[in-house]
Design goal:
Blueprint (H helix, E strand, L loop, with lengths): L1 E6 L19 E2 L2 E2 H7 L7 E6 L3 H8 L2 E2 L2 E7 L6 H7 L8 E6 L3 E2 L3 H6 L5 E6 L7 E5 L5 E6 L8 E10 L17 H9 L5 E4 L3 E2 L6 H12 L1
């Protein structure tokens, strides 16, 4: 199975740290955020596709053609038009039934990605949040599959949120989301639309720390210490 890592964003909320460094290369304990992600990939992942954009040449230079025993291919996203468009750029490289999609900058517990992959079929990774209104909230069907994935709801129906990783199939590309006011379209909305027709399983992360602001890097040090 291939893993697709979306790493093209500008990391605007992380400025000034991202003025000269792409967010995936910001360091915690001397190691780039994206390194932590790649090191957690399950053994069933044999190849990685990294979508780069902002300061992408630095990401290519840092990881090269192979990292942690896995071959890496790169896809360049020249226009800031959203995560769904980033994933579409990878479509010619996705020759298997399913692939693991990841974002490049959050931190997870060691079992999280495996929990997603070990489910049969498509699956999203979720976590409990005290502030679900900041993320995409998850509501389930009676059989435990995904019913709704609502981005940043004003009145959340659940404290469980979608935290990024997902095992997806090519069916996703049949559910193009609407273009938002900023000209971008996003994967979570496509997953929501797809779940109305295809079963999407749900796994729960063993640990998750979203990295959105500079102060979160200090929180990351504490997070990693607790994992150890």
């Amino acid at each position: 199975m291939k893993a697709v890592v979306l790493a093209a964003g500008e990391g605007v909320r992380m400025r000034p740290l991202t003025l000269n460094t792409p967010k995936p290369l910001l360091e915690v304990n001397g190691k780039a955020l994206l390194e932590y992600t790649l090191e957690l990939l399950p053994k069933s992942i044999d190849e990685v596709v990294i979508v780069e954009g902002y300061l992408g040449e630095k990401i290519r230079s840092h990881f090269g053609a192979r990292f942690d025993g896995k071959n890496i291919q790169y896809v360049h996203q020249p226009v800031k038009n959203g995560t769904f468009r980033a994933l579409e750029l990878c479509r010619p490289l996705l020759d298997e039934e399913h692939f693991l999609m990841l974002f490049a900058d959050d931190l997870f517990g060691p079992k999280s990605f495996e929990r997603c992959v070990e489910k049969k079929g498509m699956c999203i990774l979720t976590a409990h949040s005290k502030h679900p209104e900041r993320f995409g909230t998850v509501e389930l069907n009676a059989d435990g599959t995904l019913k709704e994935l609502i981005e940043k709801p004003k009145i959340p129906k659940s404290n469980y949120v979608y935290c990024g990783p997902a095992v997806l199939g090519k069916e996703l590309f049949d559910f193009a989301p609407k273009i938002s006011e900023n000209g971008e379209c996003y994967v979570p909305e496509a997953i929501h639309l797809m779940a109305q027709k295809w079963p999407v399983h749900v796994a729960i992360a063993d640990a998750w720390l979203p990295i959105g602001y500079p102060e979160d890097l200090k929180n990351a040090e504490v997070f990693l210490e607790k994992l150890e």
